[in-house]
Amino acid sequence: MKIEFWFEFASTYSYPAAMRIEALAASRDVQVAWRPFLLGPIFQQQGWNDSPFNIYQAKGRYMWRDMERVCERQDIPLRKPSTFPRNGLLPARVVCAHSEQAWVPGFVRAIYRANFADDADISSPAIVEQCLTALGQDAATILATSQTPTAKDKLKAQTAEAMERGVFGAPSFVVGDELFWGNDRLEDALAWARR
Amino acid sequence: MKIEFWFEFASTYSYPAAMRIEALAASRDVQVAWRPFLLGPIFQQQGWNDSPFNIYQAKGRYMWRDMERVCERQDIPLRKPSTFPRNGLLPARVVCAHSEQAWVPGFVRAIYRANFADDADISSPAIVEQCLTALGQDAATILATSQTPTAKDKLKAQTAEAMERGVFGAPSFVVGDELFWGNDRLEDALAWARR
């Protein structure tokens, strides 16, 4: 049984999902495929050149308050990033190029923590390096293999695949052809994987 | 303890919320204030002249599938309305003009059932009349008092109040100044009301 976790490092509600998915899926014997993608091209198709939470201000105000409640309940820290949305291209390339590596789940959580708890610039190679080093990884080699033309194309292709499969926001969970959107649907998606 | 239930008869996710809120709130000793409003003016402010589920097609496709799952779990029927969104102005005026009446919760459910289970035209006086009559009410009198200038202004004012208080979609639940958006947040809103 497998669940695909489609996430974007800039996405607010992907943060609580990323922090809990590995343990929750393991407790239900479901395997997680970590599938980063970019929301930018998907939002552009919808006519947005910014996060909808910035474009639609009442919705944005609500989202930040709701995130406070969600993170409080999940007991994870939240500091509103001074830049939103933050460019998550580099860490997304890192995950995309190394998706089968055992350090990936910990790296994903470290990047989300940097963005949404430490207000750090996750587009900076120094921050990404720091997250990799803290996990005992060879940051220089990983950063190099994550920025080859092949690695860049892989993330582009993965974003195109997301669109083709109906993903329109993050986080999304896919089980076979069944799509679930939003952190609130993680439990339902896991239940679907166990059917 | 009181919860305000802000709903729009055209709104898909307001349907499962409307079908369960009265019993759920009662079980937790929370009173419900039934507050219909119109999404049209709010969406227009955001630059939309249609439901976002029609404008953003991937999101719309997902929503109808998600609604199937939500309604199946809640064991309520769902038939995709042949017209979406349906104009809910008339029944909204009826509720707004009679919000303290004991028949209102049953009427709200009857209109939602008409729209989302029976594919009936809820903008038609005949359908609204039928829902009122089935509840043992004097439909002609209620329809008349729901369409006076005072009644029309009351719904306009209530829609303006929704906007002022940060409501940007339906269903929304308000407890004091705390806003909760979406059928998924009903339990949280009720818990907030009991704090």
Automatic annotation (TrEMBL), chains A, B:
InterPro entries: DSBA-like_thioredoxin_dom (IPR001853), GST_Kappa/NadH (IPR051924), HCCAis_GSTk (IPR014440), NahD-like (IPR044087), Thioredoxin-like_sf (IPR036249). Its EC number is 5.99.1.4. The keyword Isomerase applies. It catalyses: 2-hydroxychromene-2-carboxylate = (3E)-4-(2-hydroxyphenyl)-2-oxobut-3-enoate. Pfam families: DSBA. GO terms for biological process: glutathione metabolic process; naphthalene catabolic process. Belongs to the GST superfamily. NadH family. This is 2-hydroxychromene-2-carboxylate isomerase. It comes from Steroidobacter agaridevorans.
